[in-house]
Design brief:
Elements (H helix, E strand, L loop, with lengths): L3 E6 L6 H13 L2 E6 L11 H12 L5 E5 L4 H7 L4 E6 L2 H17 L4 E6 L9 H9 L13 H8 L1
Parallel strand pairs: 1-2, 1-4, 2-3, 4-5
This protein binds 4'-phosphopantetheine (PNS).
The site of 4'-phosphopantetheine has 12 residues, from strand 1, helix 3 and helix 4.
């Protein structure tokens, strides 16, 4: 059976840390769906369409990766689309409680669905979309944080 997994997130905007996790997942599994979702706890700075477009441009050329946006429950989307696992990156202990809560909730909602955590690349331990937004809004250089091919688009929207 083909192993189809999902890398979900708000990607507001995409960072090099996200791309590292997605690329590594694409080498481990047959097919990776990058799910662009809304986190009810956050108000996005980029529209869903913008976030999807930035990810598609960055991931262009990786054949087994597709980018989709959807509303509703992640666990239900996985069930409806034959997705066997959620793949997420863990940066630090501070991520753990939040991620653990989500993993257990998703398992309760869909008992077939596993959550796999990849240890983040040490280069991106500190990195988050919020950091990118904060640095850009204060006139800082975001080139170490975001994919080069979408750097200008992200900067134009944030400055
Ligand atoms: O990048 P984020 O903001 O940490 O991603 C969180 C996200 C979007 C993956 C999470 O909020 C989510 O799964 N939202 C979809 C709604 C859902 O299924 N909620 C219940 C899971 S706890």
């Amino acid at each position: 059976m083909q192993k189809k997994v999902i890398c979900p997130g708000s990607f507001d905007p995409v960072t090099l840390g996200h791309i590292d996790i997605i690329r590594r997942a694409s080498r481990m599994f047959d097919h990776v769906v990058v799910g662009v979702l809304n986190n009810v706890a956050k108000t996005p700075s980029f529209s869903t369409e913008e976030r999807i477009a930035l990810l598609r441009k960055t991931l262009d050329g990786i054949d087994n990766v597709e980018v989709v946006g959807f509303d509703g429950l992640l666990a239900q989307y996985a069930k409806d689309n034959n997705i066997t696992a959620i793949v997420k990156g863990l940066r630090a202990v501070s991520d753990f409680e939040y991620e653990f809560q989500q993993a257990l909730t998703n398992k309760k909602l869909n008992s077939e669905l596993e959550t796999v955590f990849l240890t983040c690349n040490s280069d991106y331990m500190y990195l988050s979309s919020s950091i990118v937004k904060q640095v850009a809004s204060l006139g800082g250089d975001i080139s170490p944080f975001v994919p080069e091919c979408v750097h200008d688009e992200i900067l134009d929207r944030l400055k």
